[in-house]
Design goal:
With 259 residues, this protein is α/β, with parallel strands linked by helices. The protein has helices at 8-17, 28-41, 54-66, 80-87, 159-169, 171-182, 192-200, 211-219, 248-258, and strands at residues 19-24, 46-51, 74-76, 91-92, 114-126, 152-155, 187-189, 206-210, 224-227, 234-242. α1 packs across α9 (248-258), α5 (159-169) packs across α6 (171-182) and α7 (192-200) packs across α8. The termini are close together.
Length: 259
């Protein structure tokens, strides 16, 4: 459904502000076209885009706030940001008219956060290094000795994977599983896109990463494919407005546009 016409007062205020600062963990090849599309629709507002990985972005916001600096209007990143920012009163409440088209479990009823996208975790595998019948189809199968010693790439900030398994299995089983997986000596590095690219290039046989990054690499023609392990852990990536947003009207206009 097409976006409704924005509130004329909001539009007028945004026009005066003339800028929006967007902090995001969304890859630049995806976030930049979104910013460009907004500027095309509202040429009187310039988007200043800052992109960083989820953990680094969360630290940047918290560090700036400690120094009394409130530079962002809209921030988008990983789910653990919601609680961390809310505790420090860094989030502004805004109930977007776009919520009429969104499932109620995907936004906060008080308007403090909105889910921009949902991200399922998957197991990717290099199709040249791993035969289809050898692909581990379960979490348990990843513990097979053949995957020991640097075969598996994992994110060193995969807190939400552990959190998801904990809510499915209970803490004891989830932590025990992660200890057994750690004994396989997986390679721990940061960044989903980079790790999936390296897997496609043959550096790793297996990669635990976001499903869409595996799909995108496969679409580009890399020898990679993926499966969802059950339970499939799905992360939410929220959008939030700063409680001290320098451009509050433009922030709300931009949030509406994103949604």
């Amino acid at each position: 459904q097409a976006q409704k016409s924005p509130d004329p007062k909001l539009l007028e205020g945004a026009k005066k502000e003339g800028e929006i600062v967007w902090y995001t963990s969304m890859a630049l090849d995806q976030s930049k076209p979104v910013a460009d599309a907004f500027e095309k629709k509202y040429p009187f507002i310039k988007v200043t885009l800052f992109r960083s990985g989820g953990g680094a972005l969360m630290n940047k916001v918290l560090t700036e706030a400690r120094a009394g600096r409130y530079a962002f209007d809209v921030v988008g990143g990983r789910g653990e940001m919601i609680q961390a920012f809310k505790e420090k009163n860094l989030l502004g409440a805004y109930r977007s008219p776009e919520t009429s088209m969104i499932d109620p479990d995907l936004f906060d009823k008080d308007g403090y956060w909105y889910v921009y996208y949902v991200v399922p975790n998957a197991l990717g595998y290099n199709t040249k290094l791993v035969k289809k019948e050898e692909v581990p189809m379960t979490y348990e199968a990843l513990l097979n000795p053949k995957w020991k010693g640097g075969s598996i790439s994992m994110d060193n900030e995969a807190y939400l994977l552990l959190q998801g398994l904990t809510s499915a299995w209970g803490k004891e089983k989830a932590v025990d599983y992660m200890k057994r997986l750690a004994a396989q000596d997986p390679v721990l590095t940061r960044g989903n896109t980079e790790r999936v690219t390296f897997t496609g290039a043959g550096q790793y046989s297996l990669v635990i990463a976001y499903a869409h990054t595996v799909e995108r690499e496969k679409f580009k023609g890399a020898p990679i494919d993926g499966i969802a392990l059950e339970p499939a852990v799905v992360e939410i990536d929220p959008l939030m407005i700063g409680s001290k947003a320098p451009h509050p009207n433009a922030a709300r206009l931009f949030l509406d546009f994103l949604l």
